């Protein structure tokens, strides 16, 4: 029997200055929160991911390993790698996960001369855009 796993469209830009691995991990997280990937769905194998994204199998393995370590994916013996259920963490645990990322966003916004209202509006726009329908 042959199983085919859909690979969510992940946009990777080699010239962006960000590693392919970091881009793919970010894109997978974005697909999860936007509803393109759902908990329990199968995730592609290393071979399938490397072929579809046209990346080195070692990079594909690193992507899957990072997503598994971060709790986005889980490995089920006899089934394969699937999208994990979101953790039921307390609010302070979730806030600490984003602390560094939010600080980076604020620094960049201030450097660009944005006002708090503009940053809040941009955040609201992206929050709504990425919310599952």
What does this structure look like?
53% of the residues lie in helices and 6% in strands. Helix 2 (46-53) packs across helix 3 (57-69). It has two domains: 14-83, Arc Repressor Mutant, subunit A (Orthogonal Bundle); 91-130. It is mainly α and 133 residues long.
Query: Which percent range describes the beta-strand content?
Result: 5-15%
SSE order, one letter for each helix or strand:
HHHEEHH
Query: Any low-confidence stretches, pLDDT <50, length ≥5?
Result: 1-6
Supply the helix-strand structural class.
mainly alpha
Q: What's the structural domain tally?
A: 2
The first-level CATH class name of the largest domain: Mainly Alpha
Give a nutshell description of this structure.
By secondary structure, the protein is mostly helical. It has helices at 20-33, 46-53, 57-69, 91-111, 116-130; strands at 73-76, 80-83.
Secondary structure blueprint with pairings:
Layout: H1 20-33, H2 46-53, H3 57-69, E1 73-76, E2 80-83, H4 91-111, H5 116-130
Antiparallel strand pairs: 1-2
Helix pairs in contact: 1-3, 2-3
